[in-house]
Amino acid sequence: MILSVSIETCCIICWVDDATDASGLRLDARRNRDAVLTAALRILAADPDAGMRRIAEESGVARATVYRRFPTREHLLRALAELVVEEQRAVAVDATTPPAPAAEVLRRLGHGIVRVGERYRFAGSPAGDAPLRDPAADEPLMVWLTEAAAGGELRADLPADWMYAMVHGLGRAANEEVIAGRRTTEEAGDLLGRTLVRALVADPERR
Fold this sequence. Notes:
The protein is mainly α. Helices cover 70% and strands 0% of the residues. It has helices at 2-18, 27-46, 52-59, 63-69, 73-95, 102-119, 130-133, 140-150, 160-179, 185-200. Helix 6 (102-119) packs across helix 9 (160-179) and helix 6 (102-119) packs antiparallel against helix 10. It is elongated.
């Protein structure tokens, strides 16, 4: 009986270790990756020059495992850049859900963009955010801009891809103001939202 329980337990452990998430990554590997990225985000926000050794030590993950997943600091920064893309996409979804007038969506967007920029302020201008700088047609924000312009809520004289580029560029400028200490996160988010409303909303009375 004891032997049977031991075997069953071992099988259960093996099954859990071999389980994968939607991306095909083993669940234990995903937990380790998330632990390292969480530690890196916390540490680099306070000390942008922190090295891999410190991040590995504070992540709680074995150093060999950390270096196997992220051989260099550049590999780690690229993974964090991917998180920036994911979170900025989530900001666009959150800003447009539930549906609201364009002015309200743009105000939500302003605050969301600056909050994400504040979290990743150490990253500078990562190459990994290229999907946001050169978006596909199904990028959430691009979809909303296209539909809002077609519906007459946004200016018809501005192409959707131009408006997208302006949102992206002004968002970077707003984050730089926060990094320089000239604006708080709340102030920059408010100003960014108001600027987008004034620039993009079609009907002046809706601004």
